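Explain this record to help learners:
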Amino acid sequence: MQPYMAEWRERGLDVVLVSSDRPDRLESFIKQHNLAATALLDPDWQVHRLYQVQGLPTSVFLDREGKVKHSSVGWGPKHFADTLYLAENLIGPAL
């Protein structure tokens, strides 16, 4: 997703990572994968409970009003293609 995130941000879509890992592990993961996304720590699993996360990783897509439009568990080629499709549908056509 990294190659798309700057364009998405310009078009009004932000990607936020939420992790319950220790801060040093999250920081290491971000550096290892050269991620340019906002990362939030959720040590008490409040966000996980709020969005009813059932497995990791989970992707949750919210509209501009904060309503859940889609969620999925896992990652791989199909999830990546689905993520691109869902992101483009949420933000609409590029100007």
